[in-house]
Structure formats: structure tokens, C-alpha cells
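ARCHIVE CARD
Drawer: 12
Card no.: 0347
Subject: one protein chain, sequence and derived structure
Cross-reference: see card 0346
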Amino acid sequence: MQRLFRVFTLVTLSLLPLGCAVPKPTTIGDSNHPEGFVYTSGTHFGLDSRPFYVAGANHHYLAYAPAVEVANVLQDARDMGLNTLRVFAFLDIGSLDGSTRKTTSPVYGKYAYDLNRNGVYFHYWNTAMNAPDYNDGADGLRHLDYAVSEAGKYGLKLILTLTNTWKYQGGIPQYLEWYGMEGLDYPNPVGDHNKFYTDARCKQAFKNWINHLVNRVNYYTGIAYKDDPTIMSWELMNEAEAGGAPTSTVYNWAVEMSAYLKQLDPNHLVGLGEQGYFSGRGQNWKYNGGTGTNFDDLILINTLDWGSYHLYPNYWDEAADWGQNTWIPEHINIGKNVNKPVLLGEFGWNEATKDTVYDNWTRKIETLDGAGWLFWRLIGRSYDGTYPSDSENFDIHSGDSAFYVLKAAAARMKARNNP
């Protein structure tokens, strides 16, 4: 998630009324898919010949958190009745000697929640090789191995996101820095950000990262990531965009990278991780192509199995009910038109009406028989037994009233998985 303040013009659509009856769950027929792997069936996901409606949460630091914090989050997710977590499965830095700078966001406090990585890193610039390299050890990818292993024990599926538009945990800015470019403060200014999608060195480095992770054998389970049913899907990027560039820039990159990933790992689903913005639908920034993405085109890429959209009316100058009246129906209906699942991959509302808003949004997804949702974000207790402070008021943890609102929504989704 990146907090961006934009100016908007409301787009009016003809939509289903809120009072519509919730349709019966979609029936998923027998499949030829490997046991335990999530797959797509039309506009929905399936698992072992049953529907798999997603009720989930985002968690930005599970991949590098201390073991006790991993356990706390997974226990809370299970207590909440969730079946899926979306996890940032990357942690990029500069060179170990400091000659290539680290562009990850600064540490804001003492907790993993506050981006305190405690020396953990996955992907770095190796000065001897003059190329990106990987940290497979105890202060590296074994942390991700542990999170994946433990999630499997809790019966949770994971969406693993492979990089980020934003500087948090490295992402595009770090790739650019490796190759002498600059994009740390995107989108103000854009800088070299959009070159990530076209620069041959960046593209090859990202492919190499995909190959390394997909073929990695988990230290704790002995299972290669490409063979692990705990993983529901790979997601190429968190909130892919290229402000000011033609929408073909991200589109062509997504075509190339999703095809490459599918070739390496045909068992797992692949998503892009887009926010759901459009092009050619008016002057509103969410609809005019200014972010360099067009959901109408991206959803049609045949090597992307599902579509993603995010929802943050607070930061988009929209009212809460715009979510259930416009943004949610708009994307679910597009998915129906092209016969693909569409997930609300992140959502947040940080005002006192949060409980009502989240109830409305999740019920709207049910009313339209949408594929599911993942809220931003679930937080467990830290190693010292406390919950880190949340200046934005998006975080949800056990004991919050919103926790129980979403627990009830997850129970309704779970009931749809057992028609």
C-alpha cells in the first residue's frame, strides 16, 4: 500500500442495489489439478473440487518477523477464520559494503512492524559479481521458508508478492539503484521509475529472482516452492504502476513476466497485483490512464489467472459508500465479463465508521458473488507482548471491534466454500 492523495471526479454507474439477495455459491466441478493447489474455475477459485472463496488479510512483515511474531499472526488469522494471507516475499538491499546504497524505507521503530528488519535481507548487490545475489541463510530466505512452513501448519494459503512499486522493503527503487538509476521518491518525482519495466538489466534481474524463489527448496519442509500447495498464488508486484507512461509499459512487462513464471511453475496461479485503475474512461485520475495501468487490458492477459484491485477511499477523496456502490461492482462485473476471478487485494478505511464500512464492503462482494477479499492489515502481538502503534488506524488485531466484523464476514465466506 502507498498513500497517495489524488483529485477525483465521480463516475456514476448503473449498479445492483445493496438489498439484492446473496446468490448461491458457485459450484466447482471435478478438477485435474494437483491435490491441495488452488486453481481457477471461471470467476472463482477452487480447491480439491470445492469452491475457494478468499477471506484474507495482508501482512507486510511476516517474511522477516521473529518466530514468535509469526506464530502470533498466524494464530490470530486462524482465530479470525481467515483462509489466506497476502505476504510481501521480498527484501532487497544495496551492497553489503555500502558502495551501492540501500533504498528500503527507514526503520521507524524497534519492531518488525516498523520495518526493523534486524539484519535480515534476501536480495542484494554483490560487488564481487557486479550483479544481484541472494542470501539463502539464517539471516535471509530461511525467514521466508519459516513463514511458509508455519502457514502450512495452520492450514492457511499464501499469496506471495515478488516485488513492490514502492520503496518499502526495496522493490523497484532498489533495482534501479543497482543499475545506476533513481526512483526512490516515486511518484513525486517519477524519476527513472518507469525504466524498471523496460530496462533489460532490471527485467533479467527480476526473472532471476523469480527463478531463484520458485525453485528454492524450503529449509524447513524440504519442498520446493513450486511444489508447495501452501502457496495459493504468486503476485508479480505490489501495486504495479508507471505514472505518466503509456499503459502498454506495464502491460508488456506483465505479459513477459507472467509467461516466464508460468513456464517455471505451471502448478501455481499468477496475478499482477494491480490496484484496478483504468484508462480511457474519463478525466478522473483513477480512470484516465495517468497511473500507466488499465485494468480492462491487464485482466485479459492469458498468463494472469486473476485480477486484483485495491480500495482506499480515504486517500482517494471518495466517500465510503463509493466502495460498495461503484468500485467493487465495477471490478467484479468486469471479471464476470471475461470469466476470471477478481480479488479485492487490499482495502482500508480509517474513520470511526470502520466496522459498518467493512461490513458493507464484504457483504457487497457476497451479493455480487465475488471471489473474495483481503483487508489491510492484520497485526499480531510483537515479541514483547504489545501491539505496535498505528498512526493511520488501518491495522486490525484481536480484540478490535473490526476484528469481529471481519471474523463474521470470513465465516460467511467459509460457509460458501462448503455448499
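Annotation on reverse: The first strand starts at residue 38 and ends at 41. Residues 3-20 have pLDDT under 50 and may be disordered.
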